Amino acid sequence: MIMAKLQRFGRIRQLHTIISQETIKPSSPTPPHLKTHNLSLLDRFVGHIHMPIVFFYPNYDHGDTHILKKSLSQSLTQYYPFAGRFPAPHAPHINCNDEGVVFLEASNNGRLDEFIRKKEHDETMDRLIPNGLGCTMHKTSPNLIEVQLNHFAGGGAALAVSISHKLADALTMASFFNHWATVTRGGSPINPSFVSSSVTNNEILGFPLIDTEKLNYVRRRFVFPNSKLYELKNKVNAMGTSPMNPSRVELLTSLLFKCAVDSATRKSGSLMPSNLFHTVNMRNRNIKKFPETAAGNLSTTVIAKIATDSGEIKLHEVIGTLRKGIMELEELSNVEEVIGNLLSKLSPLEGEQSRAYISSSMCRFPFYEMDFGWGKPVDIMFRIPEVNDSCVLLMDAQSGDGIEALVRLQEEEMDIFRKDKDLLAYVEDM
């Protein structure tokens, strides 16, 4: 087994080579009145981690690299904080000094079709990410964005981007990619409006980051077709308990949470108190209306504390608790109230012996629409950093039929999870 791992590691190193590196700066200098960008209160609640994403394009033309870099430079004039730097690790603002974005090119002797649709995410995928930024807590960089264009043997490419979560949530990432892609195709993109705060102190430090790299976590993809999600919805509605007609995201988030907790329970022999931390987009809610072009972190976290008195996790109870937390957000009128609500939910958990499960949905976010002139991506890979406990990321399936879930659990728990009958009843053939 050890020899096989060594051989595999050696093969990975031989296959992937960085062939160039340069810094892409904004095509026009950032004006003096925009040289300092104060983080919003929601930005400050986010840890200093990078979020990597990889787009796979089978029809990439090697001659387009210059155009790709030029359009990135043009987009950075509008996304000017992305080309800046934090003056200190916990500074509440960014110096928009046009230092630029690192752009790497790499050659990979593997074929593109060896990477797409992979159920398991392993170290071969991490090689595609610029400097492995965002893969572990120990991979850090002063650069707020790094880009890596990976050329495959036989054609095609993977465009990987790792963006600091401190200044962008998933929808801001999607807006940036769409802006860049539109400029690359010669179109006229919609420019962003960055949300900031007039408060310049740093009283809010956000969630603590936990290094889980040594806990032997694994990541696996699952696809849930719409027909199966419809079956699940009918089953829940037939229970006659509230809430009726849950959304696909509420259904699947709750199902995956239940199955994950059940797996941990089977492994340990006892049911540990468990909390679901679910990210919710605050755009278009009752709080201060943000423009459609708002950029930054405009999300908060709903904490669903699940009662375990009965000795088991019940699906309809998870759905109800999650829905209640989301509905409470409708009563909030400004960002300060959003922060206060979150702090009030976090405070009782301090010192509590419980398991945390993190979930986030990117369904309906236009990641599969990112056309740089080579057609739309045939696959997308998100990389969950090794900085939290068990995690779930949801996004639309590439086919348009259903939802794809990227699940990260401890290895022994994943072995149990993937065999759970409640999961297998609704997942696409594994």
TrEMBL record:
- InterPro entries documented for this protein: CAT-like_dom_sf
Q: Which Gene3D superfamilies match?
A: Chloramphenicol acetyltransferase-like domain
Which UniProt keywords are given for this protein, alphabetically ordered?
Acyltransferase, Transferase
Top-down, what is the taxonomic lineage of the species of origin?
Answer: Eukaryota, Viridiplantae, Streptophyta, Embryophyta, Tracheophyta
Look up and give the organism this protein is from. Cynara cardunculus var. scolymus (Globe artichoke)
Q: Would you identify the family this protein belongs to, as annotated? A: Belongs to the plant acyltransferase family.
Name this polypeptide is given: Chloramphenicol acetyltransferase-like domain-containing protein
UniProt signal peptide:
none
Please report a single Pfam family linked to this protein. Answer: Transferase
Q: Which GO terms describe its molecular function?
A: acyltransferase activity
